[in-house]
Amino acid sequence: MQIQLYHKPNSRSQRIVWLFEELGLDYDILVCDTLDDANTHQLQQAHPLAKFPTVKITELEHTFFLSETSAIAEWFSTHQQSLGAMNLDSSALVDYYYWKNFAEATFMPNLALKQIFSQLAIRTPWLIRFIPRAIQYGFNQGYLNPLLQQQMQMINQHLTTQPWVAGSQFTIADILLWFPLHSCTHLNDRYMRYPAINSYLQQIEDRPAFQRALSKGQWSAPIFKQYWAVAN
Ligand SMILES: N[C@@H](CCC(=O)N[C@@H](CS)C(=O)NCC(=O)O)C(=O)O
Fold it and tell me: In ligand 1, which atom is closest to the CA atom of 11?
C-alpha cells in the first residue's frame, strides 16, 4: 500500500501523522502550508473541499482519496486491525464509540466557534471592532465558556477512573480526542486545572510514536500556543 498524507502543520491533521506512527506505516507527507503552494493545488484538483487531513491511498493498482480525520482513523484502524474496536469488552466499546464521535462532533465545533469569533473581531476595522468584540464576549460568557467548562469536567471525571478513554487500551478514540483537548488547554489557564486531563495529556506526550509524529509533522508548539491563546 502506498500512502500520501496532505498535511497542514499545527492543524487537526497532526493526528493522522501520529496515527501512522502508532501503526508503524510507511507514508509520505505532503506539507500544505499555504492555500497556494503546489501540494495544496494538487489536493484541490483531487478533492472538491481540499481539507487537511486528506490521504491518497494506492492499493492493488487502485487509487482513492479519503478525507475527514475520523474516517481516515477508522479506515486505517480497520485495515490494520489495530487501535480500534477489536478486543474491547462491552463497556469499553460503548466508551470507544462515544468518545471517538464526541471529539469531532461535539467538542471540536465549540473550539472552532472560538476561532471564528476571534477571527471576526481581528478582521474587523479597528474603529468598529468593539461590535464583534461585544458579541464575542456575550457569546463566550453566556454559552461557550460554561459549555467548555462542563465538557472539560466530564472528560476529567471520565479519565479519573481509567488510563485511556476506552478503558485500559489505547485506541483511535484517544488520537481523535487529543487535538481538541490539547487546543482547549491552550485557550485559557482555567482549562489547565483538570488533574486527570493533565496526566492524560502527559501520558500521550510520553509515547514515542507521538514524539516522532511531532517532528515529522513539523509541529510548532509556539505557533500552536499563539493560535489558541488569541481565541479565548
Ligand atoms: N472535520 C474535518 C475538518 C477538516 C478541516 O477543516 N481542516 C482544516 C485544518 S484544521 C483545513 O483544512 N483548513 C484549511 C481550509 O479550510 O482551507 C476533519 O477533521 O478532517
Answer: 10
Rounded to an integer, what distance in angstroms lies between the CA atom of residue 119 and that of residue 124?
8
Distance 184 CA to ligand 1 centre (A): 17
Q: Identify the three-state secondary structure at position 32.
A: coil
Q: Which residues line ligand 1 (CB under 6 A)?
A: 8, 11-12, 51-53, 68-69, 104
Q: Which atom of ligand 1 is nearest to the CA of 70?
A: 19
Domain boundaries, the chain: 2-80, 90-229
pLDDT tens-digit profile of 27-66? Answer: 999 999 888 899 999 999 998 899 999 999 999 889 999 9
Fold of the domain built from segment(s) 2-80: Glutaredoxin (3.40.30)
φ/ψ of 217, rounded to 5, equals: -85, 5
Nearest CA to ligand 1 atom 14: 51
Could you say which of 1.20.1050.10, 3.40.50.620, 1.10.10.10, 1.10.645.10 is the CATH number of the domain covering 90-229?
1.20.1050.10
